[in-house]
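R.M. (postdoc): so does anyone remember the format we settled on? I'll just put the structure tokens first.
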């Protein structure tokens, strides 16, 4: 009986211990399951993080089999993420075949040599894509490699930016070289005529100088002065174009008048370059003899004279042609054609850039500042026009000035040019020159001496009004900076005195505010200093013809 009780007690104890052990195992199993769940959750979190990294990431085991790729890698190389479960070796990844990267990965797997390189992966796409690739080994506490990680970043934009910076640097250096050459050339171009002027003026002061020598020296001083003035004007013009301070003053004028003005200037240009043997012809369209255009006439003159000057300089023999034709019904195209040395195709664009010449070497045959065509192109654009070029080496060049939508009429205005070179005669006209400087009045007085026009001088605005009350005036040449009475008020008072009086404003390049005032007050013409005789006669004659 006692043994039976003992056995039952022992059995109960065993059951109790077994129950307790089961509970312990259930608790540990629950903890293990929780741990597994936590690990799985963390793994999912890490995967999500890596999939949002903008770098392509590739994980390899120690044998080179793909363990993991993130979504960036999948998109970049068009490689499905599901492939990572297929135990694919990196050597079978075709995009890396026969590349520098393939060699680096092999050394990483075999010798654990880590790398950081920039390379192209040409098979990736049709563009020139560059990548920075890093290969690192992941080690355990015993410093043994357990996996390898490849990180790839697209640096194409950075490389392109670097390339652009290099090109910009090279262009800036080239620009500095061109500017240096330009300044050196400009120094020579200014000093040479200045030395001529000073030297021959000294000779002209000599007593008993033969009249033939005096005439020759005077012509040299005049020619050198024109060259010096042209160089200074070029620098001022290009500065105004660059800073967008050059204004456009449109006026209506007969095309034949423009052509004859430029044609008359050709004689001076030939003499300046000692090319009197060249033949320059004017090709007028007889069907459109009275064609009228609206444009900035001063700029048109300057552009065509620049074309003509280049033609004379680069032509040794033959015939130079100046002309025009109608373009697109209401546009006009002026041209200058020469049989000179021509221009190679590779220079057709660069010659319109600042400081550019086909020959920039110190041993070049012809001079010049290298700004003429850049200025001409800038002026054409200001007038909403353009300049084009046809040229073949050793066969000659043709420069075109296109002015679209510039034609006003084909018959409404008679030309006022002095076609046959006959002296102007204005015996029945009176001109009042209003300028503070007596020297400016004397200069214009000498220029107009052969015209037999009656001249008067006004030093101030008050004196100008006083003269208008004393005698009849046909034309007022008014300096923009005349003291005494504000410009607008003075113009209004002249018009109140006699609305038939023509007004020509004369001065230096006008600022924007003055330009607006003049255009608003309907002044008849703008004439800029420095004044040259042909232009002055041309402008005055036109005012008398119109009146």
């Amino acid at each position: 009986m006692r043994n039976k009780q003992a056995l039952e007690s022992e059995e109960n104890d065993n059951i109790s211990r077994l129950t307790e052990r089961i509970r312990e195992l259930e608790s540990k199993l629950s903890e293990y399951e929780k741990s597994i769940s936590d690990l799985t959750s963390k793994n999912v979190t890490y995967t999500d993080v890596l999939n949002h990294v903008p770098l392509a990431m590739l994980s390899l085991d120690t044998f080179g089999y793909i363990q993991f790729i993130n979504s960036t890698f999948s998109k970049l190389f068009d490689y499905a993420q599901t492939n990572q479960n297929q135990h694919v070796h990196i050597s079978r990844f075709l995009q890396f075949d026969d590349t520098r990267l393939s060699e680096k990965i092999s050394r990483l797997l075999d010798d654990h040599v880590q790398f950081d390189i920039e390379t192209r992966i040409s098979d990736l796409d049709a563009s020139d894509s560059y990548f920075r690739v890093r290969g690192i080994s992941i080690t355990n506490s015993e410093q043994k490699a357990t996996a390898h990680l490849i990180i790839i970043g697209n640096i194409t934009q950075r490389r392109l930016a670097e390339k652009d910076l290099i090109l910009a640097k090279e262009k800036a250096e080239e620009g500095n070289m061109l500017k240096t050459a330009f300044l050196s050339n400009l120094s020579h171009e200014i000093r040479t005529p200045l030395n001529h002027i000073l030297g021959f003026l000294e000779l002209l002061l000599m007593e008993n100088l033969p009249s033939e020598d005096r005439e020759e020296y005077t012509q040299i001083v005049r020619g050198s002065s024109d060259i010096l003035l042209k160089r200074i004007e070029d620098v001022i013009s290009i500065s105004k174009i660059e800073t967008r301070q050059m204004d456009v003053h449109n006026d209506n004028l007969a095309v034949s008048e423009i052509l004859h003005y430029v044609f008359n200037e050709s004689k001076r240009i030939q003499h300046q370059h000692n090319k009197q043997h060249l033949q320059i012809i004017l090709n007028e369209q007889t069907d459109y003899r009275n064609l009228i255009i609206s444009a900035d006439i001063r700029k048109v003159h300057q552009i065509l004279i620049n074309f003509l000057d280049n033609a004379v300089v680069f032509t040794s023999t033959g015939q130079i042609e100046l002309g025009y034709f109608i373009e697109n019904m209401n546009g006009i195209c002026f041209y200058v054609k020469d049989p000179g040395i021509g221009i190679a195709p590779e220079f057709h664009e660069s010659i319109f850039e600042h400081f550019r010449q086909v020959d920039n070497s110190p041993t070049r045959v012809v001079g010049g500042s290298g700004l003429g065509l850049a200025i001409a192109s800038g002026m054409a654009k200001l007038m909403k026009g353009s300049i084009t070029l046809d040229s073949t080496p050793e066969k000659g060049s043709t420069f075109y000035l296109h002015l679209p939508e510039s034609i006003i009429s084909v018959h409404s205005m008679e030309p006022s040019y002095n076609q046959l070179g006959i002296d102007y005669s204005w015996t029945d006209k009176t001109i009042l020159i209003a300028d503070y400087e007596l020297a400016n009045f004397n200069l214009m007085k000498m220029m107009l001496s052969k015209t037999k026009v009656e001249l008067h001088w006004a030093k101030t605005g008050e004196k100008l009004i006083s003269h208008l009350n004393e005698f009849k005036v046909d034309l007022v040449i008014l300096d923009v900076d005349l003291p005494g009475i504000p410009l607008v008020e003075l113009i209004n008072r002249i018009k109140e005195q006699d609305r038939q009086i023509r007004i020509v404003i004369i001065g230096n390049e006008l600022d924007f505010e003055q330009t607006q005032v003049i255009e608003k007050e309907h002044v008849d013409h703008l004439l800029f200093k420095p004044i040259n005789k042909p232009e002055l006669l041309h402008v005055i004659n036109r005012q008398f013809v119109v009146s």
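R.M.: ...and that's the designed sequence above, right after the tokens. Also worth knowing: Residues 360-367, 412-421 have pLDDT under 50 and may be disordered. Residues 59 and 149 are 5 Å apart (CA to CA).
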